[in-house]
Amino acid sequence: MTLDRSFVILIYLMTTTTDPSQARPLAEHGPDSPLSAEIVAWIEAEAGHPVTSVTRVAAGGRRLGFAVDLAGADSTRGLYLAMEPGDATAGDRPSGLRREFHVYQRLARDGIRVPPVLALHPTIDAMLMEHVPGHARYGSIGDTATKVAVARDFMACLATAHLVDPWDDPVPGLEPHGSIRRHLTEFVDGWAERYRSGRNGPDPLLEHGLRWLRSRMPDPDRRLAIVQGDTGPGNFMFDGDRVTAIVDWELSHLGDPFEDLGWLSMRAAQDPFPDLALRLQEYADALGEELDLDAVRYYRVLAEWTIALIGHLKSRAGLGDSERGNAFVFEQLHRRLLIEALAEADGETLPDLPGIRFADTDRTWVYDMALDQQRVSVVPHLDDPLAVRRAKGVARTLKWLKQADRAGGEPVERERQALQALLGTAVGDLTAARLEVVRGIREDRWSKADQRAYLWLKTWLDNEVCGEAMGRLRDRHLDPLTQPADGGAS
């Protein structure tokens, strides 16, 4: 990023997004309602009560979420509306909301704890469901015993969900038609096609991960299951020490039940899950299967690759009403965790690399001033939780811009040297050189070790620049999958 472009972005952030008067209104139903009259009329017809208020709430990713209050209804009931944004066909997600609705219906028939769904809009990607009691912020639990109890209950719930037979009353769009290996191949190929046809071009790390996934694909002799995808902390609701519902089945598909343990490991890195190794064994016992750690290692590479791929497809997009300020931090985390998962699965240790020598510039004070204004003059005056979340995303963006400025030309020069070592030629244009690396990975020109030497350096440098914005995420890593020799929790 050039300095001029950096300051254009900074000025944009300071003059638009951070203004509390621009916070999205969370209004009663009326002229300022965030929903169209058509959607409100549909909700009222399905619920049998007038809508009194609609509140925009954080929904995760690109999906839109709204809490809906009704007149004359049981005040403890409440409704939740999930919608895809208008540009949901951009390609970074399959059309998951309609499938998710049918997954909820199927799992509920077998007594699985999922949100009760009421209606699916006939023409718009919108799903109406009942409010689920409890909270989703697993990290907010302060008591260790309660945290462990919730984790154990979640593992039991997940195993029970995986025991639902996908061949019996199949979910529309998830009809089983072969082995775990066949469904896994289709899952990888489907995401590879979205990546190859995406608007942001190829990426060396994703190419490397794709080749690894295809070359190491397991073929287990286990029962086929409805896999949640992206399962773990943040995607289940709990009340006290009990899980009330497993939510967000947007990435659901058919596959190996142990695949969800890879997704759980991925999410546990960003929202710590106590004694993961013990929880995995408890899950396997509940499922009635021997714990296959090699499969879990493969599937956490798959999970990290998929999340990194989604982040790549969304990068340089989603301006305006989006989670971009927060999302890019998690994208960087999962790119690093991807290469760490690859190394761990191959029994390798990534080398320690020297950090970037950051130094203040004559512009550092501008970033510090903007951050102070956010912290002191903006966030304390925001009553809208969604606006607070957006403001924190802006602060993360400012921290990243500040560190990119303080890094100077060192990251570019170090990457240039690594590219020259890999390509064996002088490098001028880094973008062109990265494309040549992609071609080389596809043609298998270099050893895995040579590829990873460059990929690890590039990922490490990006992690360093993003470090201040990442906060505690900067030093998060994947948990061990086995307990230590003394038998204690890992």
From TrEMBL:
Pfam families: APH (PF01636). Signal peptide: none annotated. Keywords: Transferase. Residues 94-284 form the Aminoglycoside phosphotransferase domain. It comes from Streptomyces mexicanus. SUPFAM superfamilies: Protein kinase-like (PK-like). This is Phosphotransferase family protein. InterPro entries: ACAD10_11_N, AGP_Transferase, Aminoglycoside_PTrfase, Kinase-like_dom_sf. PANTHER family: AMINOGLYCOSIDE PHOSPHOTRANSFERASE DOMAIN-CONTAINING PROTEIN-RELATED, AMINOGLYCOSIDE PHOSPHOTRANSFERASE-RELATED-RELATED. GO terms for molecular function: transferase activity.
